[in-house]
Write a structure and sequence with these properties.
CATH superfamily of the largest domain: HUPs
Radius of gyration: 18 Å
Shape: globular
Largest sheet: 5 strands, parallel
CATH class of the largest domain: Alpha Beta
Number of strands: 5
Number of helices: 10
Oligomer: single chain
Structural class: alpha/beta
């Protein structure tokens, strides 16, 4: 039996990978599908984490970035329709696992993300693929995962966590307005690219609002509110209605 870890390189998937590798050191695969749209520091952390676990990263990637996928598909992805995740992540993981059966796929959803786990379980179950969620089974939260990475293992998480919830692509088209305000503040080139793609496709990333340019004021206001609450340790609304279901 092969044990295939969805190794995205975020904090949660890294802790999950360590748990699985410790149990199955001889037959664990750290599977990674690049979107060529992530911050460079994600690559740094992913490599350091793989070295700490003691296993190589198995990369199986399409080669395109999210913008190339949108152009090839002929439409701009948005919060409800994500060809980037489907093509660059989900379909590749499904193909890889089918080629490596018998296998168990492990995904690093934390205790707070049990609903995401339910959706992902259903997606793979219809293909008769076994998927497990070790962090949920061990009742581990995202805070506990961060504690292990930083305080137990002495590793520095990806820099994106200083202002975002997930180590996603930059940008992630599923983000809400506060997220896009943060993208404007921290990743201006990505915001400008997304705005130019809206004009090119004559489509909007916000399915029930104006363009990024039209909504910039609201986006920045919400982003500043988010950061203020984060700084003060207050609970803030999520940057995503439904985070990207990349799977791996």
């Amino acid at each position: 039996m092969k044990h295939i870890v969805g190794f995205s390189g975020g904090i949660a998937s890294s802790v999950m990978a360590k748990i699985v590798a410790d149990k199955h050191p001889q037959c664990t695969t750290l599977l990674y599908h690049s979107t060529n749209s992530e911050p460079d520091d994600n690559d740094r952390f992913r490599a350091e984490m793989a070295n700490y676990i003691g296993l190589p990263i198995t990369e199986d990637s399409d080669g395109r970035n999210i913008w190339q996928v949108f152009r090839d598909e002929g439409y701009l992805g948005n919060g409800r329709n994500t060809p980037c995740s489907r093509i660059l992540k989900q379909e590749r993981s499904l193909k890889y696992i089918r080629q490596n059966l018998p296998a168990i796929l492990y995904i690093g959803f934390t205790l707070e993300e049990y609903r995401r786990a339910q959706r992902t379980f259903a997606r793979y179950d219809k293909h008769n693929i076994v998927v497990q969620f070790p962090l949920i089974e061990e009742k581990l939260t995202k805070a506990e995962c961060e504690h292990r990475v930083k305080n137990c293992w002495g590793l520095t998480p990806p820099l994106i966590y200083s202002w975002a919830e997930h180590a996603n692509c930059i940008p992630c088209i599923k983000g809400k307005k506060a997220y896009w305000g943060l993208i404007y503040m921290y990743e201006r080139l990505a915001w400008e690219m997304a705005s130019s793609m809206e004009k090119e496709f004559k489509q909007r990333i916000f399915t029930e609002a104006g363009t990024l340019e039209d909504e910039l004021g609201n986006c920045l206001r919400l982003a500043k509110e988010y950061l203020a609450k984060k700084k003060n340790g207050q609970k803030q609304l999520s940057l995503f209605d439904y985070p990207c279901e990349c799977a791996v």
